[in-house]
Each structure stands twice: as C-alpha cells, then as structure tokens.
Design a protein that fits this description.
Number of strands: 0
Radius of gyration: 29 Å
Oligomer: single chain
Amino acid sequence: MSETADLTKAPAAATPTPAPAPPEGGTSPRLQQFKQEVDALKVSGGQANPEKKGLTLGVVAWVAAVVLEFWAYFGSNGTEDPLAQNDFLILSIFGATLAVIGTGLVVRYALTRYFRYWLVRLIYEDREQTDRLIAALERRP
C-alpha cells in the first residue's frame, strides 16, 4: 500500500479530532492576515478598476438608446413621407441594438465583480480548510 493510502484511511478505533476553533473574534488567523494585507495595499479603484468604466459605459448606452428610441418614435409619427419614416426606422433599430449592447456590458461587468469577490473568498476558505486538514493529520499518531 502507498503512503498516501495510509494517510487517508482512519483506524477503526480512532475517534475523529475536532478542527481547531477560530479565535474569539470569529475570524481565523489567515483571514485576519488577509484583511491586514488588503488594508496595507492602499489601492484605490480609480484607473485600475475597469468594471466601473464598463458599468458606466453600459448605463450610458442604455440612456442613449432610450433617447434614440423616443426621437425615432416621435420623428416617424410627425411625417407622412415613407422615406423619412424609413430613416427613423433605421435609427430605432440602432437604438435597440445599442440597448442590447448596453445590457451586455452591464451584465458582464457586474458579474465580473461578483465572481472576482467569490473566487478570492473561495481561495482563502480552501487554504484555511487545508491548514486545518494538515494540522489534523500532524496530530495523528
């Protein structure tokens, strides 16, 4: 049998040892270290934060689409000329396309922010769980 197989099998008579409890503050030392490192970075969200720019661009596209749609609607109703109505029809299609693009930008950048937070949190929780597992394995006879 290999050495890894021996580590994964628990003896039948052994009782499982509980994982070490977090300190009284409710946060583990690793999480406290993470918070201190993030605070020490002193990074602002200015130029290094493309999500804000993408969200802003998406919202601007939505507003521009609404303005174009209203302009096309009221412009086409004010004329009997089919050529002018076709021009406003093209403008309204462009407005609808702009609204779809704006929606895509907003969804993409909103999800990017959320998934980045989720991924960092998952990495630190996995590291903390690995530390507990290693500590438990080191205590085994």
